[in-house]
Amino acid sequence: MPFPCDRYIENSDEAYFRAISVKAPERILFRWLCQLKVGSYSYDWIDRLERMFFPVQDSISEPPSPKQLIPGVENLALGQRVMGIFKLVEFEKNQHLTIVMDDERAIDMFGNIAASYVIFPITENTCRLILKGHIQYPRNNFWSWIRYVLPWGDLVMMRQQFLRLKSLAENQASL
User: What's the number of CA atoms in the CB half-sphere (13 Å) around residue 107?
Assistant: First the structure.
């Protein structure tokens, strides 16, 4: 099945898929996806380290991964920063966010990445969040080993991110 991120990297080395079911309407989950503009919602201590190595000038000065929705963050525009090292290249309200790696130092280290977070409604109050991520691994010799580590690191990080977004969306849906 095609995903929006398929348009942003040709001949990727890998495509990662991550998914989780969420007991919340897609409009609530989408609002939480928009929060990725201000935090990774994975492990905050890693987010803090990332901000030291990849400082973002236009980032909002909130603590990593706020537990409350920040008003206005859901107002999306192409080119906005997402999780510090990505930029928003495509979106459809309540349906998907598509991002690409947009920091040269991060691309040198991790490779070129394009990913889509897509929400599939199952029932009125349940949906499935699926991420497809394309990657072209770094071509330089120094970072070539990342191809063996990144899939496992991504699995751990994305699992935490998906569990936190699920919990926050489900808590809000139950109010």
Answer: 12
